[in-house]
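Write out this protein's structure.
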Amino acid sequence: VQLQASGGGLVQTGASLRLSCATSGHTRNFMGWFRQAPGKEREFVAAIKWENDSTYYADFVRGRFTISRDKVRNTVYLHMTSLKPEDTAVYYCAVDREFSVGRYDYSGRYAYWGQGTLVTVSS
């Protein structure tokens, strides 16, 4: 299973970006986005339940970021608005497997990870 993330870049505070992550069509329950800032641990950002579009967010992005998916293209998106310097990080997409265990915000649930795309927000 391969994941191809794209869409990162250098933007100013308050700008918007949309990240994309395409994957193969294997059976999955959740696709998620995590991020890792320099010197920090990887943290959960958002997840989407593939079968019914239910979405889940970390508190620090709720209201600013939106996760969505295109079932036909097997692609998940992360639309980020009102970006802040503290959003600067490498963003990773991830997908679980049919029988993965753990909550949607638990990185161990996800079996496959993309290579990461860097988002830099300047002040």
